Amino acid sequence: MAFLSTLPDDAGVRHILALNPAAGRALIEFHSAALRSDSQLDAKDKELIAAFVSGLNACQYCYGVHKETAKAFGVPESVIEALLADVNSAPVDERLKPLLSYARVLTLTPTRAQQSHADAILAAGWTERDLHDAILTVCLFNFMNRLLEGHGVKGSAELYQARGQALHAVGYAPLLDMLSTSEAKPISLKP
């Protein structure tokens, strides 16, 4: 159950974002720009990072949704679980391992980020832009995990699957329409 009485029992991201529509729109636009922009790091990789970061943070909602999104892109659930246990032994493309190791550091111990992490990523064949895109994804999901947990929003298996399929099929832009629909019915904020 959500912590705010203004949020419904089945609250999701759009309900939270509707509490401050201008910030909500900016955040959804950021999702689209960061997660669906052209780079070597494709949407599948970014959704894998989103699920990985959310799993590290034990954010039930974001992990559930982005695990389902990654699965829709073809990532087996067993791979995501293996990454959470140990990046180095997980059955993923070797090029992804330095990126995912760095995502782990930035999520769990950000002050321990070092030049050697960036060097390993670049040595694996990624560009500085790819590294930047990975960092944006890690930062975005650390933020989103705290946003959902801070509001007490957990979701359900049915919601995770539906949102994961939708994000795979149409991306993040339709959330702007949902937010606009929410704006049409102002949310009252109780003192």
UniProtKB/TrEMBL annotation:
<protein>
    <submittedName>
        <fullName>Peroxidase</fullName>
    </submittedName>
</protein>
<dbReference type="GO" id="GO:0051920">
    <property type="term" value="F:peroxiredoxin activity"/>
</dbReference>
<dbReference type="Pfam" id="PF02627">
    <property type="entry name" value="CMD"/>
</dbReference>
<keyword id="KW-0560">Oxidoreductase</keyword>
<feature type="domain" description="Carboxymuconolactone decarboxylase-like">
    <location>
        <begin position="21"/>
        <end position="85"/>
    </location>
</feature>
<keyword id="KW-0575">Peroxidase</keyword>
<dbReference type="InterPro" id="IPR003779">
    <property type="entry name" value="CMD-like"/>
</dbReference>
<dbReference type="InterPro" id="IPR004675">
    <property type="entry name" value="AhpD_core"/>
</dbReference>
<dbReference type="InterPro" id="IPR010195">
    <property type="entry name" value="Uncharacterised_peroxidase-rel"/>
</dbReference>
<dbReference type="InterPro" id="IPR029032">
    <property type="entry name" value="AhpD-like"/>
</dbReference>
